[in-house]
Amino acid sequence: RGATLRRLGSGIAAWNAWATNMAVLRRKVEADPALLWLWQFLACVELIEESFDEELDVAGFHFPGAVRFAGSAFGRDAWFTDARFHGPVDFRDAIFGRDAFFERARFAADADFGAVHFKRSAEFRELSCAGTLGFVEAEFSGSVWFRSSFFEGPVRFRGARFGWEAGLGDCRYRGPADFAEVDFSDNAGFDNAIFEQSATFAQARFCQAAWFSGVQFRGEAVFDRTRFLGRRHFDGIAVSVPHAPVATQAAVLERLRAAFSG
Q1: 20 to 30 A from 236, CA-CA: which of 69, 80, 135, 215?
Q2: 11-71-179 Cα angle (round to 5)
Q3: pLDDT value at position 46?
Q4: How far from 162 is each of 4, 155, 170, 175, 207, CA to CA, in Å?
Q5: Rounded Cα–Cα distance for residues 195 and 219 (Å)
């Protein structure tokens, strides 16, 4: 932990030189299970329940192994812009007291933000994740933006709470997307998103405007007991159920229109 913190404080050049050396070393030892285990231990950034009282700026940093910030508290702004995470990432139960910046971050494996509390704005624009991206029961007290992001694996927001505006439009969801039981207190935008597999909004609540204009549902779309308390925008949505007859696709589209306009 001490070595990791000192390396973080040395700046991006020193950190990324270490990360490059670790990547080269991995290729040399990955055929040996014992040496690979040792490499994973040394490459791991383990800062569980750490308190960052000053601004944390790791923009552009490369993380060669697993990263664990579970339970950590970020008292000032946290900058992860353009960061590259090559292993699994764990931010569960972390608290971001000020603004959090993850624009253009790249996650090569799973990223878990379960039960994280963002007390101010959170920026995830143009993010990409190859594994499972989880925000189960996360709390966003400020605005949050994921626009133009690419999710290759499953996306899980079940039970999350959005206290202010949520921008999830212009995104591509290649895996299943779970927004069941999510509470959107302010405007929520999914406009022009593409859901290639199932998209679940069962029992979600939209308190203000809900934007689904131009959305493409290429898998099953579930809106059972979804509540729309504000304006609904669903013009131009497209539904495609693989291997289903035209009549079935038409029925699905009508159910969605009824949910959005009801």
Answers
A1: 135
A2: 105
A3: 96
A4: 33, 16, 19, 22, 10
A5: 7
- Which CA distances in Å does 226 have to 32, 80, 167, 184, 220? 51, 34, 19, 11, 15
Q: How far apart are CA 21 and CA 24, in angstroms?
A: 5
The pTM assigned to this predicted structure is 0.90
What is the chain's length? 262
φ, ψ (nearest 5 deg) of residue 68: -130, 110
Burial class (CB in 10 A: 0-12, 13-18, 19+), 124: buried
pLDDT greater than 60 at residue 249: no
Give strand pairing partners of 95. Answer: 73, 117
Residue of 212, 221, 226, 214 lying closest to 183 (CA atoms): 226
Question: What is the C-alpha to C-alpha distance for residues 113 and 67, in angstroms, rounded to an integer?
Answer: 12
Edge-to-edge order in the sheet of strand 161-162: 51-52, 73-74, 95-96, 117-118, 139-140, 161-162, 183-184, 205-206, 227-228
Q: Given this model, what pLDDT does residue 219 score? A: 96
Measuring CA to CA, how many Å separate 257 from each of 60, 212, 250, 254? 43, 11, 11, 5
pLDDT at 248 over 60: no
